[in-house]
């Protein structure tokens, strides 16, 4: 409980520093919201300036794999596992009018995740799944806010060895993922804030999804696949 209070104090110090009237608290909370919105807006603009050509190239490569029958595998830990599920969902269950594409989050099967973690080790929890399911022509996307997740790095190494297109998303300075020779594409969010990193990564992968859809539509109208 104290850890939660410490976290809240760090995010919203004005609630703890002094006794204040309601109007002051509301005004300072509104200011905190504006500051955080400005931070993520600036970060997204920085990524757009620095990564736009690489995001477009990655989407092109993903579209080529998917058009040829490839599948998307996504994975991450903690909040990144939720993002992985969100990315898989938008490919597999897109808005009306977009192509349905095969995608799987490797964090979704609790029995598999807990069995591998317990019997083999948590570092192998994604790598073992890719070794069993992945095939040349598929795509592996690993998400990590720090870039330092050993199980994400291990899975991307296995994916590269099996001929999958490998995509990493990290924060800070890229961590372990920045040291991998196995990655075809890496997007590093230059921030030390977990919250801003995850928000920016969401922007990156939704942009990848949209550009992939546009490339597939340009290559071949998907009337039969649209919903």
TrEMBL record:
CDD domains: SIS_GmhA
Keyword Cytoplasm annotated: no
Biological process according to GO: carbohydrate derivative metabolic process
Entries under InterPro entries matching the protein: GmhA/DiaA, SIS_dom, SIS_dom_sf, SIS_GmhA/DiaA_subfam
Keywords: Isomerase
GO molecular function: carbohydrate derivative binding; isomerase activity
Segments forming domain SIS: 62-218
Pfam families assigned: SIS_2 (PF13580)
Superkingdom assignment: Bacteria
PANTHER family: DNAA INITIATOR-ASSOCIATING PROTEIN DIAA (PTHR30390:SF6), SEDOHEPTULOSE 7-PHOSPHATE ISOMERASE / DNAA INITIATOR-ASSOCIATING FACTOR FOR REPLICATION INITIATION (PTHR30390)
Protein name per Swiss-Prot or TrEMBL: Phosphoheptose isomerase
Organism: Streptomyces poonensis
Gene: gmhA
